[in-house]
Amino acid sequence: MTRDGYADSSAQDATHSSARSSAEGSHQPVASLASRAAAAFTAYTCGDRDQMSDLVDLVTPVLWHTARAQHLDSGTAEDVIQTAWIRLIEHADSIKDAQAVLGWLITTVRREAWRVSRGAGRAEPTDAIPEPDPERRHSHPLDPSLLAVLHEGQRTLWRHVATLPERCQALLRVVAFVDRPDYGTVSQALGMPVGSIGPTRGRCLAKLRAALLADPGWSHS
Amino acid sequence: MTTDDDTTATTALEALEPLDDIDRRILAAARETIARLDPVPAGLTDRIKFEITLAALHAEIADLERMPLAGVRGDDTAYTPTESVTFTSSSLSLMVTLTPDRSSGAATSHSGPMVRIDGWVTAGGATVELFVGGRTFTALSDDHGRFIIDGVPRGSARFVLRAPGGDGRPVITPSLEI
User: Which residues in chain A have Cβ-Cβ distances shorter than 8 Å to B38?
Assistant: First the structure.
């Protein structure tokens, strides 16, 4: 697979980052989340049981936002994530490629979220992130009163994020919590073909970017 | 690394306009914003780790049979009802009775009301572990299968039972609010 390729480019980022401008330095040259998850999972399967704890710490934020992007309430999201972890323990032996463990967990959370929110009797989605129910469009799981915790720039950003298509919002919520080399893994796990991550993500980000750059509330933040 | 699929996928990623600083700044700001608006619940990772520990036991999960309240509350005394709960599995069964624990300094304790658990398991010499509120209590059932655990804080609790001799799968109960 190409994951090694991603890891290589990440390593190049690391070697070149010292020569970059300080602005570019804000891109943290760390190993991809998938690689770090793979290292912890490999150690776990080799008998270092404590490593599972590291894996939980690493990927829980991504899984949380994967579940929440599927419109689950907080308690249901927790249950779904717990279920995914229990399945991982049960199926640890069947995961041959440790690099795949991040994608496996995201996929499991997404499918379980779908199953729970649509009822167990319904068929699983084929591949795409489901379009939202029309009546759910106004039941965004984030409490608007929470906007008070944001500073002006963040409020501006969130106002524009909220105008994006549902699919873009879901993608953005997950992609924001992984590293760039993980985009391929995340796109697959969210049910989008690898080849479309760029264009899909590009479209979402391009819209957001254009809106933000035209908004003085953002540019001065 | 050199299959057509890989090449295609890599090209599809690399051929795109590279992310620039503005993109990175937007993504970083989105991450911060989302993390503030919808933070991962406190304690979630601890709860996951605990569930993983239990799952790794490959324990049989017991069925919960909630019994009618056994306490006497026919008059207006301040009796807190006693609650009995039974768990069954293919190998071991467990009945526990919960009563407010007034003996273990609960009145002066800063950690809130305590519960006393009188238990009966269908095997003498069975090891009973109780996980509640991040603490673990361990008891051994007597020849008649009885055990007592007192000074238990209220919270979500699970029991893990092991038959004497350590043979067979452990049995774990579903969560019980005590």
Answer: 64-65, 68, 141-142, 146
Q: Inform me whether the C-beta atom of residue B146 falls under 8 Å from chain A C-beta atoms.
A: no
**Lowest-confidence region among A17-21, A180-184, B108-112:** A17-21
**ipTM reported for the complex, 2 dp:** 0.73
Give the predicted TM-score (pTM) of the model.
Answer: 0.65
Between B55 and A101, residue with greater pLDDT: A101
Each domain of chain B, given as residue ranges in start order, spans 4-37, 51-177
Separation in Å, CA of A81 to nearest CA in chain B:
8
Host domain of residue A169:
32-130+140-219
The verdict on residue A160 lying in a domain is yes
What pLDDT does B67 receive?
A: 59
Is pLDDT larger for residue A101 or for residue A15?
A101
Helices (H) and strands (E) in chain B, counts: 3, 11
Q: pLDDT tens across B95-128, in order?
A: 999 998 876 554 444 567 889 999 999 999 999 9
**CATH architecture, domain B51-177:** Sandwich (2.60)
User: Is B13's CB within 8 Å of A198's CB?
Assistant: yes
Task: For residue A56, give the chain B residue with the closest CA.
Answer: B45
Cα–Cα dist B53/A42, whole Å: 17
A98 falls within a domain? yes
Which helix H or strand E contains A111, and what residues bound it? helix A101-118
Q: Which residue from B40, B53, B16, B31 is spatially nearest to A172, judged by alpha carbons?
A: B31
Q: Enumerate the residues of chain A whose CB falls inside 8 A of the CB of residue B175.
A: none
Reading phi first (left if > 0) and then psi (alpha if -120 to 50, else beta), residue B112 is in left
Q: How far apart are the C-alpha atoms of A109 and B17, rounded to whole Å?
A: 31
Cβ pairs A/B, distance under 8 A:
125
Which site among A1, A2, A143, A161 would you substitute to test the B interface, given the most B Cβ atoms closer than 10 Å to its Cβ? Answer: A2
Q: B27 and A64 in contact by Cβ < 8 A?
A: no
State residue B165's pLDDT score: 82
